[in-house]
Design a protein that fits this description.
This protein is of the alpha+beta class. Helices cover about 55% and strands about 20% of the residues.
Length: about 375
């Protein structure tokens, strides 16, 4: 056999193998998807959490963990520089203290003004009482002067006394009348301060004191606004400390001390304790499943039973491309993806292969 015939035979054998392989693939369908549907095995995968600082930025001053560390929920992972935030908090606290002092001062002044109005009112009533007594005394004096004048006028007509004595009595009467008018005016002036009119000085003092309540309320509202700002800064300071959201293992530290960190930029990759594996089932098997159902799988290594819960049951992705690339009927288009989250168990770690036997579907 010469070299040319030998090469020709080798080529024919190779072409025959390709044709046979294509036929086997066409009728049996041993691609990755079909194999996964038949074996129903999946790789156990741990969910990963990309940790970042929430809405804050700054210089990283502390790394509290390193790759491979196990952490508990709430453990400190990283810290950003809080100097600027601390200064802003101290400034706001000072402003709030000043506002509290102003509120106390204004409230105290208001109280003093009310007390002054009460004191002025008390003194005014006391003055009115005194003036009423003075007016009463003046009226008595006027009455006596009128009686003395009338008596002397009669005596003058009878020639019993001189005209000069009547003149003196008349002068005394006029003085008494003038005194009564003067006392009336003084009494009217005193009562005007407490009669509730526009000239009521006591009412004006009380109104001025009452108006100070508006000033106090305005100060309190300003204080409340400052307290909201303080709360926002305290929340921002708390966010400068990155804490573990759940138990897990540090897979990757993406930022180093001294670097400037931007908000929402991943700095740590955390492997959580939540693990799952995916299997693919036929449409008939999927009909007997439902999200929330328990399924028991078996590890390929060690054949340990692993209990899990179906969290996702959906049509497997990517079937449009498969349909366009081959003619195998609808069997390939009816596979469903089942995601099963397992219960934590000793000896079961991410990366292990877990299979589910057909009996898990037939017993339902």
């Amino acid at each position: 056999m010469n070299t040319k015939e030998k090469a020709k035979r080798t080529g024919m054998i190779f072409i025959a193998l390709l044709i046979i392989g294509g036929l086997v693939l066409m009728y049996k369908g041993n691609d990755a998807l079909v194999l996964a549907t038949e074996k129903k095995e999946g790789i156990l995968t741990a969910e990963q959490v990309k940790m970042s600082f929430d809405s804050v930025s700054g210089r990283l001053i502390r790394e509290a963990v390193k790759e491979g560390d196990f952490v508990k929920k709430g453990d400190v992972i990283m810290e950003l520089d809080s100097t600027d935030t601390d200064l802003a908090i101290a400034k706001l606290k000072t402003q709030i203290a000043q506002m509290e002092a102003q509120i106390a001062s204004t409230s105290g002044t208001q109280g003093i003004n009310y007390m002054k109005a009460d004191t002025d009112e008390s003194q005014s009533y006391r003055g009115i009482d005194q003036q009423q007594a003075a007016l009463q005394s003046a009226n008595v004096t006027l009455k006596n002067a009128q009686l003395d004048y009338n008596r002397k006028a009669s005596l003058v007509q009878a020639g019993a006394i001189a005209q000069s004595q009547l003149d003196d009595a008349e002068m005394t009467l006029n003085v008494a009348r003038a005194n009564v008018e003067q006392q009336k005016q003084l009494l009217s002036k005193l009562t005007a301060a407490t009669n509730g009119s526009s000239t009521d000085t006591i009412a004006q003092e009380r109104q001025a004191a009452a108006n100070m309540a508006n000033d106090v309320e305005a100060l309190r509202q300003q204080k409340a606004a400052l307290e909201v700002q303080l709360k926002e800064l305290e929340v921002a300071k708390e966010r400068l400390t990155l804490r573990a959201p759940e138990d897990g293992k540090i897979l990757k530290v993406l930022a180093k001390e001294g670097e400037m960190i931007s908000p929402s930029t991943p700095v740590v990759l955390l492997e959580s304790n939540r693990s799952y594996y995916d299997i693919y089932v036929s449409e008939k098997q999927a009909a007997g499943l439902a999200e929330g159902m328990e399924i028991t799988g078996t590890t390929v290594a060690g054949e340990k039973q692993v209990t899990g819960t179906v969290r996702l049951l959906t049509q497997a992705p990517g079937f449009a491309d498969l349909k366009q690339s081959r003619e195998k009927g609808q069997s390939d288009l009816s596979a469903f993806q089942v995601r099963i989250y397992i219960d934590p168990q000793d000896g079961i770690i991410p990366g292990m292969t877990i299979g589910v036997k057909d009996s898990e579907f037939t017993k339902r």
